[in-house]
């Protein structure tokens, strides 16, 4: 597993996509019922694979992240090869701007950032900072 398992609630919200995933992988509705009842470890593995597909899709379509702290805000732009950050104080003063190459794959690094408190952003704040 590359990322983390989506929650049961998230899986319910993505029911149509999960059904499509099962179909693409040759698993019929009857097969899925049988797997859940008789092979729970296989069912969990399928859900883990689907979770990776969901996360990969989200991360590939995301460009901007942000992280808010009590006295600073961090705005990130995640391009194909580099990640740029703009750090702003609580009174909206740009403190620092920097960029670096990814130390892992783009998506894995973004996932780690999300696990460490970043949230997906529309990028408006990042673009407004000069």
Q: Please, could you describe this protein's structure?
A:
- With 130 residues, this protein is an alpha+beta fold.
- It has 2 domains: 8-60; 64-128, q64v53_bacfr protein fold, CATH 2.20.140.
- Helices cover 48% and strands 24% of the residues.
- The chain has 6 helices and 5 strands.
- The chain has helices at 8-13, 15-24, 29-38, 40-60, 106-115, 124-128; strands at residues 64-68, 72-78, 82-89, 94-101, 119-121.
- A hairpin with a 4-residue loop joins strand 3 (82-89) and strand 4.
- Helix 3 (29-38) packs across helix 4 and helix 4 (40-60) crosses helix 5.
- It is elongated and about 60 Å long.
- 13% of the residues are buried.
- The model has no long low-confidence stretch (mean pLDDT 95).
């Amino acid at each position: 597993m590359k990322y983390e398992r989506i929650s049961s609630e998230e899986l319910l919200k993505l029911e149509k996509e999960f059904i499509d995933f099962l179909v693409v992988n040759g698993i019929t509705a009857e097969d899925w019922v049988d797997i859940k009842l008789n092979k729970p470890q296989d069912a969990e593995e399928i859900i883990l694979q689907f979770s990776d597909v969901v996360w990969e899709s989200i991360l590939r379509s995301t460009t901007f992240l942000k992280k808010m702290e009590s006295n600073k805000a961090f705005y990130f732009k995640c391009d194909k090869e580099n990640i740029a950050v703009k750090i702003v104080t609580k009174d909206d003063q740009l403190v620092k701007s920097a960029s670096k190459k990814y130390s892992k794959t783009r998506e894995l690094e973004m996932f780690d950032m999300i696990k460490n408190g970043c949230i997906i952003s529309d990028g408006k704040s990042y673009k407004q900072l000069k």
